[in-house]
Amino acid sequence: MAPTIFYKLKFEGATISVLSVWGYAASFVIGAPLLFTLPLFMFTRQLHHAKAHALEVFQERSMERALAFEEKWLKACSSGNYELMSGSDLAGLNALNQGYDHIHKMRVVPFDLRSFSELVGSALGPMAPLFPYLIDIPEPWLKAIEEGRKLLR
Fold first, then answer.
1. Given 3, 28, 65, 76, which is the most exposed site by the fewest CB atoms within 10 A?
2. Tens digits of per-residue pLDDT, 78-89?
3. How many CB atoms sit inside 10 A of residue 103's CB?
4. Pairwise CA distance, residues 95 & 147, whole Å
5. Rounded distance between C-alpha atoms, residue 96 and residue 57, angstroms
6. pTM of the model
7. Are residues 110 and 36 in contact, defined by beta-carbon separation less than 8 angstroms?
8. DSSP symbol at 83
9. Is 109 helix (H, G, I), strand (E, B) or coil?
10. Do 8 and 20 touch, CB atoms closer than 8 A?
11. How far apart are CA 120 and CA 29, in angstroms?
């Protein structure tokens, strides 16, 4: 894509305002990430059902665990025998809380804004050599870019 745009800018004398220049760039920068992400929406329904099922099962198990903990706690408090209470009970409840946090953070869309922005950045990357032809870059930066090109050759 970048070579086509470069050819139009450098040899055909086109400007960025010509549709055949910005149209290619825009379609690639927008289209390429969409081609990767749109098929992932097919899994949204299954992910939603999996999350809902996991929360339902989790709520049942955590309620059982909480009732058992409450019974043990009340028994220890009423009898004055606090040795019945152990750190493992609290650790178990903490593990349940972490499990809930993990289920709650499950995404129903298999990508996030960061992933999509990385895809857009990957599509923009090959366009970087065209920037001097598209925007006015100060002379020191142009020299730095030229030195970088020499190093790559």
1. 3
2. 776 666 556 676
3. 17
4. 55
5. 12
6. 0.52
7. no
8. G
9. coil
10. yes
11. 6
What is the C-alpha to C-alpha distance for residues 129 and 151, in angstroms, rounded to an integer? 14
CA–CA separation, 21 and 28 (whole Å): 11
For residues 69 and 87, give the distance between their C-alpha atoms in angstroms, rounded to a whole number.
Answer: 12
Which 8-state DSSP code applies to residue 106? -
Question: DSSP secondary-structure letter at 153?
Answer: -
Q: How much is the pLDDT for 53?
A: 94
Q: Give pLDDT, residue 9.
A: 73
Query: Rounded mean pLDDT of the chain?
Result: 80
pLDDT in tens, 20-76: 777 777 788 888 888 888 888 898 899 999 999 999 998 898 888 888 888 877 777
Q: CB neighbours of 142 closer than 8 A, spacing ≥ 6?
A: 132
Q: Is the pLDDT of residue 118 over 90?
A: no
- Cα 29 to Cα 26, 48, 76, 120, 128, distances in angstroms: 5, 29, 65, 6, 12
Rounded CA separation 81/75 (Å): 8
Residue 137, CA distances (Å) to 16, 21, 66, 78, 121 in order: 15, 19, 64, 78, 20
Q: What is the end-to-end Cα distance of the chain in Å, rounded? A: 21
